[in-house]
Design goal:
Blueprint lengths: L6 H16 L20 H11 L2 H7 L1 E4 L7 H6 L3 E4 L10 H15 L9 E4 L17 H7 L2 H17 L4 E2 L23 H16 L12 E5 L13 E2 L3 H8 L1 H8 L4 E4 L3 E2 L2 E2 L4 H11 L5 E3 L12 H11 L4 E3 L9 H13 L5 H17 L19 H14 L1 E5 L12 E5 L6 H5 L20 H8 L5 E5 L10 E7 L17 H12 L4 E6 L7 H4 L4 E6 L6 H7 L42
Parallel strand pairs: 1-2, 1-11, 2-3, 3-4, 5-7, 6-8, 7-10, 13-14, 13-15, 15-16, 16-17
Antiparallel strand pairs: 8-9, 12-17
Bound molecules: beta-D-glucopyranose (2 copies).
Amino acid sequence: MSIFNNWRSVVTVAAFAVGLAASPRAVAAPRVPYAFMQPGSSVDRQASALLARLTLDEKIGQMVQVDMNAIKDKNDIAKYGFGSLLSGGNSDPADISPAGWARMYDDFQSYALKSRLAIPILYGVDAVHGHNNVDGAVIFPHNIALGATRNPALVERAARVTAAEVAGTGIDWTFAPCVTVPRNERWGRTYEGFGETPELASLMGAAYVRGLQGGKLSGRESVLACTKHFLGDGGTTDGIDQGDTRCDEATLRRIHLPGYVEAIRAGSATIMVSYNSWNGQKLHGHRQLLTDLLKGELGFRGFLVSDWAAIDQLPGDYRSDVEASINAGLDMIMIPNGPGQENNYVDFINHLKELVAAGKVPLARVDDAVLRILRVKLEMGLFKHPFGDKNLIAQVGSAAHRAVARECVRESLVLLKNQGRVLPLSRQATRIHVAGKCADDLGYQCGGWTIEWQGRTGQVVSNGTTVLQALRREVKPGTTVTFSTNGLGAAGASVAVVVIGEPPYAEMKGDRTDLTLAPEDVQAIRNCKQAGVPVVAVLFSGRPLIITDVLDQCDALVAAWLPGTEGAGVTDVLFGRHHPTGKLPCTWPRTMGQIPINVGDESYAPLFPFGFGLKY
Ligand code: BGC
Ligand code: BGC
């Protein structure tokens, strides 16, 4: 007997859902009486029973994930029965407060529940360092900094907080963790990885998955992890984003695969496929790696989602892209385009339908994809709780959450130089001169993937503490704190703290062939040094920069990565409230010519080796 047997209750659900649409906020956690939710039947049986009820159109709909900006008519969500929606890096609701995001989620979900079988959508976002497109959320350091902590228990707690904040806005799924192993600092996504070794990616990636998904996926504060980007994204020649990773299979497995092995072991419900190629073949069409290796050899039971319009990059026209990617093993396709644009969701649906009819994509392949997707939805209890839990909104950006981020910041700082023990600073210094364009700027402090896809300088979020603000709070009343961006006016101070760094960037725009410091950063250090004041430089960057020009002028140097909103974590270390414990998650090169340089290389004479980090 089918467990999804009570047809009338399904109709009731659909009607119920329509009723909810009118005032989704007023209804907390509705109980949806799907017959197949009967206790006692396993998720597998429920998923099969539901799959058996779906038409081919409905199955294909489940395989579609559409960016919110592509949807001009929300009725398309039920009309095509989309499996998922997402907000890409620049796709936000008009109101980006936690309540605004929660309202948006419930609104989209209410449209999804109008479909014939009222199958809820999964909503995905890039919460890659906290719930980073939500104004009011706590922004964590980027992954490279978490790698420097060498503390997987802390990383798990950080991911737990991120999950609570994402769930706090109703959202089900984050495209994290990124377990890339960046091997060339020219790459603009270096900071999204935990470091240059497979060991760091595995250790931290698995901890992150556990944190996001909690003890069980159905927990109200658990969200789906999406380990990414499979496979070899950090190994491309010259560190070119979306480029070609050229190596033999043994190297690919040794460096780039371990993160996935551990993430799958930790239960990662989904995995995102990468834009890059391996020896000239795009991953999105790579059946051997997606199906044979990941689903076969590694036994991955969750589902594979494509990257943003990534199948469009396969050779041939869009129809052949659809055929090649689905046959390679992709289960859900991320589509940023809607009607009127090229390669849009209607095109995808039509192509896949015709390909199935023509026998070019086996129905069994479609069934496998949909079964995987439904299983995840059932496991997370989405049918029971399709709407967000309003009680969780208040904790977004809470003091308790910020305290965890501050811990991450202070454990991630790597002390590279401390000549004459200029650090820790004294709280009783007569005057501390603060300088540098990054000292009082949350945009620099947070980096890319913050409110906007590429991030931006300035007051990018309304809550947060800059290093200057944190330092002012830290000192005793007798200490004067002065500030100038360019470092002028330092003369007479006991010490100068100069906060410098890279402007925010993200994928596609962050690749660099020159990683030397910006002239204004060099000048700010020089100005303080020329004033005859000991200089403590704090560097905000998503990767090691070429600092040989200024190293002599700095008495102390701290690599602070991209710490996020909790600048007090930086001053915790500067004043010695917390002694530095961070260790380099990547090798620090002397010159551009040395890059790529990684621990284990035959000739290895970097400025600072992998694992380096001074103590007080
Ligand atoms: C990125 C992914 C991201 C996706 C959705 C892509 O361009 O490569 O990391 O999850 O966009 O925003
Ligand atoms: C998305 C990215 C995408 C980019 C460029 C952003 O809004 O989040 O994933 O790659 O747009 O199209």
